[in-house]
Design a protein that fits this description.
The chain is mainly α. The chain has 5 helices and no strands. The relative contact order is 0.16.
Length: 137
C-alpha cells in the first residue's frame, strides 16, 4: 500500500475528505457555541470554518487534474464527470464564500462580541455549503 497517492483521482478523494467532514465538525462546534453563548467557541468555530475555506483550493486543483485522467476511463461517463464537476464547483464556491465570511466576521469584530446577524449569516452559509457538498459527492 502506497502512502502517497500516485493517481490524481486518489489524491482528490483524500483531499476532499477534509473540507466535507471538517465542515460537519465545524458546524457542530459552531452550533454548540451559539447554544452555549460562548464567544470564544464561536470565534474558534469561525477560525475552523475559515481554514476549511482555504482547503477548497487544493480540492479544486486535484479535481481538475483527476478529471483529465478519468476522461479516458470507461467506468465514468462524461455526464457523470460533468455533473460532479458542476456541483463540485458550486460547493467549493460556497465553501470559499463561507470561509471568506468567517474571516471577515473575525476581523471585523476582533475583541468585541460578535453580532447575532454575522453569526447567523456564517451559520446559514455553512449549512448551504454542506448541502452542496453532499450533492457533489
Amino acid at each position: 500500500m502506497h502512502l502517497i497517492p500516485q493517481v490524481w483521482a486518489h489524491l482528490h478523494i483524500l483531499v476532499t475528505v477534509f473540507p466535507t467532514v471538517g465542515l460537519v465538525f465545524a458546524l457542530g462546534i459552531y452550533v454548540a457555541a451559539i447554544i452555549a453563548g460562548s464567544e470564544a467557541m464561536k470565534k474558534a468555530g469561525l477560525v475552523f470554518i475559515g481554514i476549511l475555506g482555504l482547503l477548497g483550493i487544493p480540492t479544486y486543483f486535484s479535481g481538475i487534474d483527476s478529471m483529465a485522467e478519468l476522461a479516458n476511463n470507461p467506468k465514468f461517463t462524461e455526464d457523470t464527470v460533468a455533473n460532479h464537476l458542476g456541483w463540485g464547483i458550486a460547493a467549493l464556491g460556497a465553501l470559499g464564500l463561507t470561509g471568506l465570511a468567517a474571516w471577515i466576521v473575525l476581523l471585523r469584530f476582533g475583541r468585541k462580541p460578535l453580532s447575532d446577524n454575522a453569526v447567523h449569516l456564517v451559520l446559514r452559509l455553512s449549512v448551504v455549503t454542506l448541502g452542496l457538498m453532499m450533492v457533489a459527492v
